[in-house]
Specification:
- This protein is an all-alpha fold and 108 residues long.
- It has one domain.
- The chain is built from five helices and no strands.
- α2 packs across α4 and α4 crosses α5.
- The N and C termini lie far apart (34 Å).
- The relative contact order is 0.12.
């Protein structure tokens, strides 16, 4: 553990920050899930996974992670049109697109 912290000095601060963001975001994650017609448990899982992934990545002080209330409309429409089973594929493709855009520094 000590060698991990020496190689990644930001890990402790970023992890603690992600825990705080997770605790704040949990009600909104569950709310977005319920308002979208998805089981509340999936909202909780989304908050946990998002918090862990974001906590492990080195970010900037301007980085924002977590749900936004505007996602409710998008998720609701996706679930209504394509179903809950397809929502996972849509989210996976969106995540891969975000990773690709970050890798190619399209956001700069």
């Amino acid at each position: 553990m000590i060698t991990v912290l020496s190689r990644f000095p930001h890990l402790r601060q970023d992890f603690l920050a992600s825990v705080v963001v997770f605790l704040v975001a949990v009600p909104l994650c569950v709310g977005v899930a319920v308002a979208s017609g998805v089981p509340a448990e999936l909202g909780l899982v989304t908050g946990i996974v998002g918090g862990l992934v974001t906590g492990l990545m080195r970010g900037s002080s301007l980085q924002v992670s977590g749900p936004a209330a505007g996602l409710t409309v998008i998720v609701f429409e996706a679930v209504s049109e394509f179903g809950v089973s397809t929502l996972g594929v849509i989210v996976l493709i969106a995540g891969l697109l975000q990773l690709a855009m970050g890798f190619f520094r399209i956001g700069r």
